[in-house]
Specification:
Radius of gyration of chain B: 22 Å
Shape of chain B: globular
Low-confidence stretches of chain A: none
Number of helices of chain B: 17
Largest sheet of chain A: 10 strands, parallel
Oligomer: heterodimer
Strand content of chain A: 15-25%
Largest interface: A-B, 59 and 60 residues
Mean pLDDT of chain B: 96
Helix content of chain B: 25-40%
Structural class of chain A: alpha/beta
Number of helices of chain A: 18
Number of domains of chain B: 2
CATH class of the largest domain in chain B: Alpha Beta
Structural class of chain B: alpha/beta
Distance between the termini of chain B: 50 Å
Number of strands of chain B: 20
Largest sheet of chain B: 9 strands, mixed
Low-confidence stretches of chain B: none
Strand content of chain B: 15-25%
CATH architecture of the largest domain in chain B: 3-Layer(aba) Sandwich
Amino acid sequence: MLGILGGTVIDPTNGITLQKKDIWIKDKKIVSAKDVDPTVAQTIDASGQIIMAGGVDIHSHIAGAKVNSGRKLCPEDSLRLLRPRTAISRSGSGLTVPSTHSTGYLYSEMGYTTVMEAAAAPLVVRHTHEELEDTPNLDKGIFITLGNNHFIMKCIRDNEFAKARDYVGWLMGAAKGYAIKIVNPGGVENWKYGKNVDSLDDKVIGFGVTPRQILTTLGRINCELKLPHPVHIHGLRLGQAGNVDITRETMELMDEFGAHFCHVQFMSYGGERGKMPTSASREIAETINKKDGITVDVGQIIFGPATTMTSDGPAQYGLHQRVGGKWVNDDLESESGGGIIPLTFKRNNPLHGTMWVTGLEVFLLVEDPWKVFLTTDHPNAGPFLGYPQVIRLLMDSKYREQEFEKLPASAKKNALLPDLKREYSLEEIAIITRSGTAKRLGLKNKGHLGLGADADITIYTPADNREKMFAHPSWVIKDGEPVVTDGQLVLEKQGKTLYVSPDYNSAIEKDIREHFKDFYTINFDNYPIDLEHLGPVEKILCG
Amino acid sequence: MSQVFENVVCKFCGCLCDDITVEVEDTHISKVKKACPNGRGMFLDYDSSYSKPFVDGKEASWDEAIAASVDILNKADSPLIYGLSSTSSEAQRKAVELADILGAVIDSTSSVCHFPTSLAFQAIGEVTCTLGEVKDRADLLIFWGCNPLVSHIRHFTRYSANAKGRYIKNGRKGRTVVVVDVRPTPTSKVADLFIQIKPGTDYEVLTSLRALVNGKELEKDVDGVATEDLEKLVDLMKGCNYGVASFGMGLTMSAGRQYNVGELFTLVVELNKFTRFSAMPMRGHGNVAGADQVLSWLSGYPTAVSFACGVPQIGPGEFTSVDMLANGAADAALILASNPGAHFPYAAAKQLNKIPTIYMAPAGDCKPESATVVLPTACYGIDAEGTAYRMDNVPIRLRSVLQKTRPTDEEILLQFIKAVEKC
């Protein structure tokens, strides 16, 4: 039993803003004072401190095949941040692609308690689960990439919606995944022929279906299976000038099903095709503001090293043609693909400056903080360690101005940013880093401090320099146990893997078995992840 | 009592075939279907019976043997943990945890195998794919410095040359097979094109191919290989729909090592301007790909990792096991599911007789006379479950078909972790 006394609570989910309130914890949950014996409970004096729920990251690449290839690819990244072992923690290395234990510790020290792994192909999701077991102090979930899945594309081609739906129902349970992820639907398949997709109605080679069909089918499946999080979309033409049009078109298309668009900064450029991208933040914000079914996370650029990694194989091929250097590509049978390219975002690079401006403009132009979340698409736009810096940029318009001035003239020329004086409040920061993300993920017991919530709590010492404040919380509590005290990591513990297991018609298994014979080189019986193979888990209910 | 197990996974080699049928009579395997001779031997010869550990050549109790092992590890200033490639990823994870708390060096068998591939990977990256893509799409298969008909016996039928793929329905007839090697092999004999090169000239040949791909002309033959043959190969490469270049020790363990592999990787990158092309290392042991993965996710580096300074450090040529031993830098060794004495150069192997050593392997697999402690273990994939990674990095769960009577690597390593003094 634990009491956090005298702190100033910010809990937007429950309408609490800067109120002095005691928080009581028992058996890993937040309880009322009357459920606790105050004579026995340990207490933390939180007077003068700000209390929020633990951070909930809605999109980050922290574990699995792609991430690990990134680690192996970049020994230079290891040298950027070496973490010595201590009596209570393992050694580690890496800044943009930290080793697993280091990932858990770094997030924990930054006040985060839940992180969603943004993409895993089900063929290799066992690898993701293994790495997540070695990522301490966090609860996590896995988004399963389905946008280039052969079974689903077959069903669309043959007009068999029910089969596609039951297949996804089976697959989410078999993979122990959390949500449906869609990456460049159809484009990743076409890349296996050296091509891509460019519009919602291009044809996928070998299937004749379109990105539009893949998107709407998965959107509808998500609704029928009643998954807690809507479809999570990385759309077409990532990184290309003028791509804001197709992003808006896709948002209009998916609004009826509900959809979350990830790292929208990369998808919101104006400018002439093939030429220099410009910020189209106003256009994209207009759509986001209008469409009730759409949320986004930004994918804000952090100047410095990054490691781009995505299932979007053709996008990475394109990037490699432009920047050269090392490049990993991996084609995954019947499901997906991907590419990895290390990159450094430079303040004096006009394109990087424009990208940085775009992200901040999106934050400031989207009116409702419950619709726009803080990410860096770690490690694509920058490491998650950059979040506190983004918070400062959003809360402190003078600091933002200073940083803007450092950009090259061409990045500043048509920027809206200097005229956007809005400053995020602490409450809004809480929404975009935990309350809003947890709600959008359908995690009813996270992101807030109401009775029955998981006891994942972060305590911050207020400071004018908001970057310092959010980089080093004083206390972090995970499932009711302090893991960070006085700013120091004191405990390593295993978190849970959150997964869904929707109902489906088991008759589909016969079709899937047949499918495996021709489409896979692994047996149907060896493909699913059994619960007994996993560490601590929690099933999140559908519906 | 007879039992039949389907879809059993064979972990002998990097193919990780998962369609094996195993029949068990009481406590031994009586029949194996579909496995190649290597897999058959592994399953049929396996002895799951209880056997005691050995300390200083004499049978001992498990408590005595564990205590003797912990003592060796505690006393060592520079312990080396070597092997890993035939054990599960769960055990590999424990081995790395042990190395971290001991401040030890940890190194997998890739040290004498595909470590140069990892070094080339660090420099260039890699364009690759899973084996299903090879089966379904590859109309051009190049095997460079490797001999799959002998080393990966079912590769041709399950994944490559002879397989009927979804987009290559006529199997072998729809594919062109090219072998590049320094001498004729069973694999070269069935190739459509065999280019024989002189030993130690892979780099020159690869760079010449790159020159041709990039539109340059060769003025003369390359170390005895006719330019016409190289031009023919380049035409095949540029003209295919999806090419796959698989490679082995011919590149990684001949003069040039990681530079040979780097040149092949670069060639494959450049071919992707003309068509789709992938490279794939022929990983030997059943879970050496897993050792790479586990070490990378826990330390940031695939092998030859030292934890002696409290942070992970990679050291090709310094922390690689042959060098650790030959230079006298290791004063104790824990050998996991491996037999370095049989495979290492003499200067390194003889050192294993001089320092205290702990061998953990399925009984009968490895019991050198010089071993200080021998701990006979269960075998993942036969009498223990665990995860392994195929050569294309697809993770597959190994099944257990026999009752285990001996502890697993994981169980023993956990005991070590609990008992050793932290560095």
